[in-house]
Fold each of these.
Amino acid sequence: RDAIRLGISMLPQFPELYAGLDVIENIFVGQELTVRSSFLKLLDRRAMAERAVVLLEQVGAVDIQLHQPAGNLSGGQQKAVALARLVARDAEVLIFDEPNASLALRQKAMTLNLISACRTANKATVLITHDLDEVESNCDRVVVMSRGEIVANEIVREMTRERLSEYIVSS
């Protein structure tokens, strides 16, 4: 919660969804939209459903049924719901941990488009990946770590793929 409050949000390599909750509930978990009724705060399910549609469209996932349990979704659909949750948080710092691991090409493009949109919106993005193509096309700076130590910290456009590969292999 502290990270969210500070404007930091993360897309983990394996989405952490609640299998028994539906898509809408998973997108808004911890940040539910509410409406006041007398002295009570009630969930604004209609507003959350409308916003969920927009968020899923933003991440390129228009084929997901909002009221189905997350446990019934494919791996790619679960990643899309996790991406929608990331977008909903409107964080200033976004961490993507192996965002395209085991995704189909369409879903990979969806994820990379979101990363590009975040960078265009001047949001700080951290991309944790082993995919050198992703590094070259989506990063300004590369940091290679081995056993908790930084072994390289360079500007991507000033670094050759061969040198980057050497850093990775030798670590």
Amino acid sequence: NAAGFDATWAFNRTNRLLGGFDWENIDRNLESAPKSDDYRYWLEYRNTGWDNLSGRLKYTFLQRRSDLVNTAAATSVAAYFAAYDVNNFDAYVVKLNVDWTPDPMWFVGVGATWRDIKYKDNIYGRTKDKQQNYDLTVSWGDANQLRITGIGNWGTVENNQGYLAGAYPPP
């Protein structure tokens, strides 16, 4: 099941503000998390004010809430974490894209994404992720004949986890 809406408002011919909401219900045959609901809110600004330069800036907030069913014994470490792919979390994402065409034979695109995910309800296991990605695309040539394209990207990922260290039982 899924539902959503989006809206666009144009300040003028070259500047737009977009936004929306999406809801997705995920049913799965998994005892520990039979159901999840994803709620995505987003806002984007687009500028195409120049003939050879355009840009987009987008902010997204994604919230996942799962019906987590933990059948582990309370004295077990498994009682204090959930698999990160079904875990409840809040994600904050910012994306920036700039496209430049200085000449009909040239194209340069630059993109960046910053993502921060905070997992909920875990004492142990994954608690937080941070990601940064940067992309560069450069093309030269006639798009109707031969075009040579170079693509480069760089990124970092940081996964934070909680571990049981010391005396048992857990808190």
Amino acid sequence: RRLMAWRTRSSLLAGSLVSEDREDVGCKVGEPVQIVSHLEEFIIMSSVNAVTFTGIDVSAKTLDVTVLLSATGKPRRRRFANNSEAHGALIQWLKPLAPVQVVCEATGVYHLDLAYALHRAGIALMVVNPRRAKRFIEAQRRNTQTDGIDADELAQFAKRMDFVPWKAPSD
């Protein structure tokens, strides 16, 4: 994760957010940063509070999870059962990676127990319409569809799209 900034008076202000290939990397202007190196008149910085983006493909029996590690951008994948005991294991796996933003599709009733568990654990969750996720995947020109690839694409969705936190329905 990189972010470009420039020197003003005695302080550093975050400026345009770009990576080496000029793609937005999801850091926010004004976020705490740490100097990594100097290039010409720009100062390249890495984000201190980088977000870990996570995609979860939910089915009746399993949760396929992809985590994009903020330090390397490389995915880590795991599969969990879709039950309360495995939800706890998933939360314990995600907690050390905080701050985490999770995206999953609305899958009838299958995602609800997971959504409540993540909400109670204080993990940010966005539940997206399956059609919106499908259109995002189509825009990435992916033809293969497996649960693992869907989880990868949902993690990319979390990284690239505006995050709208899920709100638990009131009792």
